[in-house]
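Backbone shape codes:
***
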Amino acid sequence: MKPKLSIRLIALFALLTGSLSLHADKTKVLFVAGKKSHGFFSHEHNAGSLLLAKCLNECGMDFDASVYHDPEDPGWPKNETLLKDVNAVVIYCDGGARHVANNHVAAIDALQAKGVGVGCLHYAVETVDGEPGDAFLRWMGGYYQLYKSVNPHWTPKFEKLPDHPVSNGVEPFSINDEWYFNMRFRKDMKGVTPILSAVPPVDLLPEKDHHHNSTPDARAAVARRELTHVMWVSENENGSRGFGFTGGHFHDNWQDDNFRKVVLNAIGWIAHVEIPENGIPSSTPTMNELMENQDYPIDESRIRPDRYADLRRKKR
């Protein structure tokens, strides 16, 4: 081999291995975004995942965040290379019997056994009892259990946050969303730390039983004026971590700096990243950024009366 060619090959090899090692040093997060769901600006699984991934990639903390979303065949990633060397998986999808994880418990168990964190956003905290429910208890310490948990729209006041890295930089706040509560948690809350908690209004739930809207168990908790947990994190026996965040119905709520920060912190924490004292930084998304990657066209009938004033002006 000629000397110059040898030098060039060595230099190329050094460049490639250097870039690979640099990439390997990054914290890899994969969002799994489910199919389109509730309509304009609600349950925006793909748009919300892309927005949060962008926040992580631009925060200056060496994240490599990406989103898996197949609108034609939504579900768990079929290409296993997407999961190679991943540090955390965050799922944002329809729940219950349609949850993307239900038929892939073994695959996620294998990831978790390697220390990979698992987090679920909004409807994705709901699964079915049996193997999937037991898996959710292993992965993140709790889940929305049908005929026990409830999903009202309300405005809790998060007045006191725990001394936990996921709370770093998060100020007390209040925001309307479809905040689920009365979760099924591990026995004695072992390894589970509530992050966002509030006492629901006494008249929040209707008296008539409904598998989602009102259950006897949830009504009893409200009557007791019980502190209910709508976001939690878990430290698991095998050293992995998980979280459940029940907000995320309204896409524009990602504009709230505290709402967004507590989720970004949780994602970093389950990936075993040291969370800065002021939390993971991110810029407040603009309305134009929120409008990106929407599953549905603009539908003014779904616009909340107190929101989207800028959007209304643009359309006139």
User: Anything to note?
Assistant: The longest helix spans residues 3-24. Residues 25-149+157-199+227-315 form a domain with the Rossmann fold fold (CATH 3.40.50.880).
